[in-house]
Design goal:
With 363 residues, the chain is α/β, with parallel strands linked by helices. It is built from eleven helices and twelve strands. Helix 11 links the parallel strand 11 and strand 12. The longest helix has 15 residues. Bound molecules: iron/sulfur cluster.
């Protein structure tokens, strides 16, 4: 009940809403009406629900219950159309959520690329924790440490809030969701997976248009492969050997490349699905052609694609941007071996909305 009061009705699944209406002596179809209002219709307040009797809504409100979508505290708009939202949760903690119009740089691994169709496309990058404990050395979010996990309703709420703010009609517009904002989704696994189910069964997002990125929490990759409803998998690899990876991603000391790549190889891919390997290129650290060849051996035989991401610079980040020439040569090594490899266009760099830049403005 504490959770319910804190975050509201958003985040409750159909069974939980059914229990709630039954507790109030209401017929079961009221649960369906509540579910429909909260998720597909994305209403912001109980008083906006016209299908439920006012007396029942009043009882819920007297109990302190509300829907409680996150509040937009600030909005930063980039020249390229990217919007970075600072979202306040019911307890006042803030996270960042990013809207990228058009495409997503191929992040979703569905064959689409940034800017391939100006109309009706867009990607929402969602946070899963307040801050992050993983401590990747190239990431601004890491500088915060982790404050707490987000609850399922707070994860779904970021999506609902952006959809409402952008006036998106999901029946006409094909959007993608990437769980690549602040936090490591697989360190908040139950809430993350509940949010996924609510987005699919409630809000109406196809699972095939969602991608989750993990820094390499190997045991959860096995769990994730067994989920009946799940997004696509991206692994934030960023290095081709343990020495470099442990240096830039300390999580590698817990799950090294052998255990991570074993999990990746065991991952049950669906028809035409690929694992995305993300590789943030850092000048003089992991950008040599020898690294490209090592990477090729790591991923050989896995149905995958590779996204090369030139470092997004930021204060306090002790790495430099690689040269374009080296990134292109790195790409060629992989492409010539038959690995689809893309160089991601940075989005919203000027407003610190690009990868690894979230939480620049708020300490
Ligand atoms: S890159 Fe992702 S997993 Fe790594 S510290 Fe940043 S938010 Fe956490």
């Amino acid at each position: 009940m504490a959770e319910l009061l804190e975050t509201g009705l958003l985040g409750l699944d159909f069974q939980e809403l059914t229990a709630l209406v039954q507790r109030h002596g209401q017929p079961q179809y009221r649960a369906r009406q509540l579910f429909h209002a909260i998720y597909p219709q994305r209403v912001k307040s109980l008083r906006d629900i016209s299908t439920l009797p006012k007396s029942f809504l009043a009882v819920l409100q007297e109990e302190g219950l509300e829907i409680r979508q996150p509040q937009i505290e600030r909005k930063f708009q980039s020249q390229d159309g990217t919007i970075r939202y600072l979202m306040a949760m019911p307890d006042g903690e803030t996270v960042e959520t990013v809207w990228m119009p058009e495409g997503d740089g191929g992040e979703v691994a569905d064959g689409s690329e940034a800017g391939d169709n100006g109309w009706g496309r867009g990607t929402i990058c969602v946070s899963s924790q307040v801050g992050c404990a993983v401590n990747c050395q190239f990431c601004l979010t890491a500088l915060l440490g982790v404050k707490r996990n987000l609850q399922a309703g707070e994860i779904v709420g970021q999506v609902a809030t952006v959809l409402n703010d952008r006036g998106v009609d999901l029946e006409r517009q094909h959007l993608n969701i990437v769980f690549m904002g602040m936090g490591e989704p697989f360190l908040n696994y139950p809430s993350f997976m509940k949010a996924v189910r609510l987005l699919v069964e409630g809000v109406g997002f196809p699972e095939s248009r969602m991608t989750v990125s993990t820094s390499g929490i190997a045991p959860r990759i096995y769990d994730f492969g067994n989920e009946p409803i799940r997004p696509k998998l991206a692994i934030s690899l960023n290095a081709s050997n343990d020495e470099v990876r442990s240096r830039i991603m300390p999580i590698n000391k817990k799950w090294d490349l052998t255990s991570l790549m074993h999990a990746a190889r065991s991952f049950p891919l669906r028809n035409r699905e690929r694992i995305t390997f993300e590789y943030v290129v850092l000048r003089g650290v992991n950008d040599e052609l020898s690294h490209a060849r090592e990477l090729l051996e790591l991923v050989r035989g896995i149905r995958c694609k590779v996204n090369l991401i030139a470092l997004n610079p930021g204060p306090g980040i002790p790495f430099a941007i690689p040269t374009d020439r080296l990134v292109r040569e790195f790409q060629s090594v992989l492409v010539q071996a038959g690995i689809p490899t893309f160089i991601r266009r940075p989005r919203g760099r000027d407003i610190y909305a690009a990868c690894g830049q979230l939480k620049r403005t708020v300490a």
